[in-house]
């Protein structure tokens, strides 16, 4: 498969967009029914406010934020489902709200809780339906069908009724269907939601492969930060509709102060003095394994190893980075 990426061309160009929702206010009390009819009240909610960002063709970007940050609203605007209240949006040079039909032939959108598969038909029937309705050329359809069948292991699933698929199997079939028309950009909203470990691994491996080998631009949202770090090279964080961070995962770790972990395994008769060590905060004890958190900007590795060398019964020491979940959770707490 040839890499079709064009890294010098913008796939997404979002300039100062704001999206405001209006909500009717109701008290739910019988005595207020007449007042609500005569003087209805609305509340404005800003899902996005002054958001600007760019994604170049061939990028794999993670798009994250706490619940209500504006992630799904952004994806719906980019795919033409919603129109921004103000600002401008271009996807592959097109305005999604104006050129939605043309744009849909060049992008793919997947929401983790929804499916386009026909419930009471084999998966292959849904694929062939898309080929017919979308007028996908025979050669393109065959090439893409062969690709997704092999890489997503869909062979036995193609002739299985959609209602008989597990969640992981359905997600793979939905992703396969999404790629039949060779989209240049993918918007994936929680694609690994509810998947078991093996299904999640297959999904991540496949997405990284089509990004690298076909140059497909991918923007993915997820609450599983470990998945995002494994998939994407760039992370964009939203906070209440505002752009809060845009950079690499390593840059994000540095911004948060260089959090790290030390895992110490000791012999069964050891343990004295393990509770309090200078520069280390005890996070967890399981059997004979002690896990500590530290900040390498405040505690040098030399000081940490010196403190450990004074203890007896140490069998193993493992150094690792703090989980990205913890790094981002610390940011979320600071935004409240």
UniProtKB/TrEMBL annotation:
One of its GO terms (molecular function) is ATP hydrolysis activity. InterPro entries: AAA+_ATPase, ABC_transporter-like_ATP-bd, ABC_transporter-like_CS, ABC_transporter_ATP-binding, P-loop_NTPase. It comes from the Bacteria. Keywords: ATP-binding, Nucleotide-binding, Transport. Residues 28-265 form the ABC transporter domain. This is ABC-2 type transport system ATP-binding protein. It comes from Murimonas intestini.
């Amino acid at each position: 498969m040839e890499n079709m990426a064009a890294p010098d061309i913008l796939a997404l160009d979002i300039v100062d967009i704001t999206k405001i929702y209006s909500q009717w206010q109701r008290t739910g009390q019988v005595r207020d029914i007449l007042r609500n009819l005569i003087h209805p009240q609305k509340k404005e909610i800003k899902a996005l406010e002054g958001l600007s960002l760019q994604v170049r063709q061939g990028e794999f970007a993670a798009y994250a934020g706490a619940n209500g940050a504006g992630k799904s609203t952004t994806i719906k605007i980019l795919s033409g489902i919603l129109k921004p209240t103000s600002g401008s949006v271009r996807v592959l040079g097109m305005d999604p709200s104006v050129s939605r039909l043309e744009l849909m032939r060049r992008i793919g959108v997947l929401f983790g809780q929804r499916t386009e598969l026909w419930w009471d038909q084999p998966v292959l029937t849904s694929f062939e339906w898309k080929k017919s309705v979308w007028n996908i050329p025979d050669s393109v359809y065959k090439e893409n069908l062969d690709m997704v069948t092999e890489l997503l292991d869909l062979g036995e699933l193609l002739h299985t009724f959609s209602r008989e698929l597990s969640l992981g199997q359905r997600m793979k079939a939905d992703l396969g269907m999404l790629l039949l028309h060779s989209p240049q950009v993918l918007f994936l909203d929680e694609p690994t939601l509810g998947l078991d470990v093996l299904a999640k691994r297959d999904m991540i491996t496949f997405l990284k492969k089509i990004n690298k080998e076909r140059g497909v631009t991918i923007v993915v949202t997820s609450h599983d930060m470990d998945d995002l770090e494994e998939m994407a090279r760039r992370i964009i964080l939203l906070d209440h509709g505002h752009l809060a961070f845009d950079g690499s995962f390593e840059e994000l770790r540095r911004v948060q102060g260089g959090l790290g972990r030390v895992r110490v395994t000791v012999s069964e008769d050891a343990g004295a003095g393990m509770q309090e060590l200078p520069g280390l905060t005890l996070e967890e004890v399981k059997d004979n394994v002690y896990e500590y958190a530290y900040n390498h900007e405040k505690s040098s590795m030399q000081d940490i190893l010196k403190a450990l060398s004074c203890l007896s019964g140490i069998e193993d020491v493992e150094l690792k980075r703090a989980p990205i979940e913890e790094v981002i959770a610390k940011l979320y707490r600071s935004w409240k």
